[in-house]
Amino acid sequence: MPNMSDTVITLDAVTKMYGDAVGVKKVSLEVPTGSVFGFLGPNGAGKTTTISMMVDLIRPTSGNIKLFGLDSVAHSRAIRARIGFLAGDIALDEGLSGWQQLEYFGALHGEFNNKYVRELAARLDCKLNRRFKHLSRGNKQKVGLIAALMHQPELLILDEPTSGLDPLIQAEFNKIILEYKQAGKTVFISSHILSEVQEICDQVAFIRDGQVGASKPLSEIIEGLPKRVRILGASKELQQKLHKLSGAEAIKTSDGLMTCTYSGKPQTLLKLLAGEQVTDVTIQDYDLETIFMKYYEG
Q1: DSSP letter string over 89-102?
Q2: Can you state the angle between helices 114-123 and 167-182, rounded to 10 degrees?
Q3: Tens of pLDDT along the chain (298 residues)?
Q4: To 5 degrees, how large is the angle CA 48–CA 50–CA 53?
Q5: CB 179 within 8 A of CB 149
Q6: Contact criterion met (CB below 8 Å) for 134 and 89
Q7: Between β-strands 83-86 and 155-159, what pairing exists: parallel, antiparallel or unpaired?
Q8: Order of strands, edge to edge, in the sheet holding 280-284?
Q9: DSSP summary character for residue 183
Q10: Whether 189 contacts 24, CB under 8 Å
Q11: What is the rounded CA–CA span in Å between residue 205 and residue 214?
Q12: Sign of the CA dihedral 27, 28, 34, 40?
C-alpha cells in the first residue's frame, strides 16, 4: 500500500444504490500523485456516478472516499478549493459570454489569472466573447476545460473531457495534460476514447456494470499480452515453420498475408524471419482498444 502522501485519491469499497438499482458496487481505487489515471468503461458503466461521489455532488451509500487524505464529505469545501472539475454534461449560464462565465468562476474561487486564461483560450482555439447559448457543443466543452484548468489546481477530475472536440484540439489538450503531469500534478480522466487514454495515461481502471475489474499501470497490462504479427509474402515453408513455433497462435493465411499472435521471445521470431524473402513484416503490441474489447467480451 502506498503512503497517503503518494496517493491523491483513495476509494475504499464505495457503493452507490439508487433504490434497488446498483450505481456502483464496492469500487476500490488508488490514484498516485503526479499520474494521469484513466477511468474506462462504456456509457452506463458507473464512471459518472463514481466521479460525482468523488466531488461530493452525490453521497456514497457505503464505503468512503478520500482526496488528499481528506474525507470527501466532511472536508468537501477544502477539497474543492484544490481541484479542477469538468462534468460530463456542462450546465453554464446561457446568457453569459465565455469570458464572463470564467470571471464569475474566478470570483468564486478568489483568483482570476487573466494571462493564463487567454493562453488557454488561444491554445484551445476558444472564442470567449460569444454567449454560451450560441456556442457549439465543442466550444462549450472548451469553456468547461478552461474553467477546470484556469486556477492551476493540484488535481484535475475530468469526465469525458474531449467530447465534441476536433482532432487538432484533442491533440493540444493531450499536450496540456502531459505538461500538467510534468509539473507534478495529478489528473483523473473518465473516457471511452481509448486512443486518447493510451497516449496520455500512466494507469487505467476498467469499470463494468458498476464494478472495477482491473486497475493497473498501462505498461503492465500491455507487457503481459502477446504481440500481433503480420507477414506479407510468407512462403509455404515459412508458414509451416510458424505453425511449429512455440508461442505462435491464431495463425491465419489469406492471399500471401499471414497473421498470428506471438507470446514468445522477440529474438526467436526475428531469427526465424531473418533468412526469409518476405515483402513486409509488422510486429505490434496490442492496443488499448483490443484490451478493452477482450475485457468486456470476458
Answers
A1: S----TTSBHHHHH
A2: 140
A3: 344 468 999 999 999 999 999 999 999 999 999 999 999 887 788 899 999 999 999 999 999 999 999 999 999 999 999 999 999 888 888 899 999 999 999 998 888 899 999 999 999 999 999 998 888 889 999 999 999 999 999 999 999 898 888 989 999 999 999 999 999 999 999 987 777 777 899 888 888 888 887 777 777 776 667 788 999 988 888 888 888 899 888 889 888 789 988 888 888 988 888 878 888 998 877 666 666 666 666 5
A4: 105
A5: no
A6: no
A7: parallel
A8: 248-254, 257-262, 227-232, 280-284
A9: T
A10: no
A11: 5
A12: negative
Grid coordinates given for 241: 515453420
Structure-block grid coordinates of residue 13? 469499497
Domains of the chain: 4-222 (3.40.50.300), 224-297 (3.30.70)
Helix H or strand E encompassing 66: strand 62-67
- Estimate to the nearest angstrom the gap between the alpha carbon of 49 and the chain centroid: 16
